[in-house]
Amino acid sequence: YIIICCAKLNTNKKGAKMKHEIAVEKPDGLQESWPGQYSIFSWLDFVITFPNIITLVTTNKGNGKSNAALNAWGMLLGSEGNYSSLIAVGPKSHTFENIKREKEWCVCIPSAKFKDKSYDTIKYNGIENDEITDAGLTVEAAKNVKAPRIVECSICLECQLSWDRSLAEGDFNHIFAGRVVHVSVDDSVMDVDPAERIKKMNWMYNIRSTVHPLTLENREGGIAGLSNFRVR
User: Fold this and answer.
1) pLDDT mean across residues, the chain
2) Contacts of 168 (CB under 8 A, 6+ apart)
3) What is the CA radius of gyration of the chain?
């Protein structure tokens, strides 16, 4: 369980910040750690190493079974009356099929306490699997959508589809935008102090494996949590 920490910025002898200009094109000689790594994801994703919160996107399969997709490619944003969930989904996934058909989903955010069970949802992805209960988690009914919520997740957002499109022509990622129509928040994390709330929620973040853009050396990433957060 990795902790995100502050790092010193390298400087030259005169104390000025050193920056390198990185071209967006994938360099020759870059070796994949697994097949398709730099076609499914941009190589720049591994240079920037932007942390993404890990969520479980829940939907219903065509047979009524619960589907839970471990997802670290989404965000929440929006103005009054249009708070929205944006998620990137592979076009061959159950989640893609389910949202296209049902036009709704829930974003459930697990704590590190449920890391193993959250990742177990990947194992139980057959069409006959109830991916939530088979992974040892608990289904509960949502208030405004038919997609299931997960009891163990301290925050669940119920979403209805607003629009969807491919990120770009030929891109692996398909973007779904859904308006949040209801939110469930566990009493245990409703602390008014942001630092205490972050500590109690104990969310997980996906940290990419990293690539040195000059030497092309790479190192394995992992799962991280926020540490030493405070309000300035």
Assistant:
1) 91
2) none
3) 19
